[in-house]
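Sample 3 of the quickstart, ligand pyridoxal-5'-phosphate:
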Amino acid sequence: SFRGAERLARIAPSPSTAAAARVRELKAAGRRIFDLTVGEPDFDTPDHVKEAAIAAIRRGETKYTPVNGTPRLREAIRGSLLRTHGIEYSDSEITVGGGGKQVIFLALMATVDAGDEVLIPAPYWVSYPDMVRANDGRPVILPTSADAGYKLTADELEAAITDRTTWLILNSPGNPSGAVYTAEDLSALAEVLRRHPAVSVLSDEIYSEISFTGAPAPSLASVAPDLRHRVLVVSGVSKSFAMTGWRLGYAAGDPSLVGAINTLQSQTSSCPSSISQAAAAAALEGPQDFIAETVPVYRERRDVAVAGLAAIDGLRPIAPDGAFYVYVDCAGLIGKTTADGRTLESDQDVTLHLLEHAGVAVIQGSGYGQSPFFRISFATDTGTITAALAAIGAAVGDLR
Ligand code: PLP
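Result:
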């Protein structure tokens, strides 16, 4: 067996991947499982996007592209950011990668030295702390409160910044909380950031268009244009266009940072798939009705899920303003006992109870840095959501 590098010992595989493996196992054993763990849209990629990919293959666009993406895709991204952010980015401020995930990893790799601190408000997307650790940095977890809508406040930010702080990671709409930072929230954070010019902001906006507030989630880059060069906007087509498997994400930020990301990309993947780039360009520059059609569907499911969860004694769902998850406070179940005599001591126990007794797969909050909670995904049909909630209600009702 091989000897792993030190950095390997600092990180773990994603808990969502582990949950998916458990669901597959139970299903293979013949159990009917309602799967509420999925982090991807249940919709199919829009037809015009698929057609664009097929056309690209037929035209022979099957070779390496420039490291920072095809000129057409970069142009489409600039157009999209102008539409959504009102910001005119130059070509040298844009890069593309194999998913937002890869772009975030490369951005950290390009900027984080040993011991540098990266501020991560909790609950957080599972990958941030491990990505920071993998790059020798120190994740600094900042718990948020229900009172603040699970968003980082200006005072909390101010108190957390040290002379080692390199990044603040902001994710709005947030996975798993669905919290959306308003323009006012972002202005307050911007005030603090102006006093700390060495801190940059990684603004993960992958869910920005899946917003239930009536408008896309605002971006720090638009709210505080004077900070624009310290904000790396990361987004992609995975969630908004149901294109998770195409692996295409992008970022917009200062040319020096974008250049560094490009250097790393040139030595790792060279470029994302040429075919996916053609598809993403079609998604970003073509008709946007897919988003207009799917967001109301997500909103309806959100309402069903939140109402159903709130009606279960012991559970307190956070109503999300965006993305497709509900983060559920299950403190009311801790200390209760199952019919077979086991006491629920953690959200991991709650999650196992729901899997075994309700046949419902959810992900425990410990993976997201805030417990005791669990996350459900409503990127699945309403029938499944309703049936899963009934099963959760029954399994919770059996607790003593
Ligand atoms: N950021 C957040 C908050 C996510 O939830 C995800 C996907 O789960 C990503 C980034 C990465 O998406 P992708 O790499 O598919 O662009």
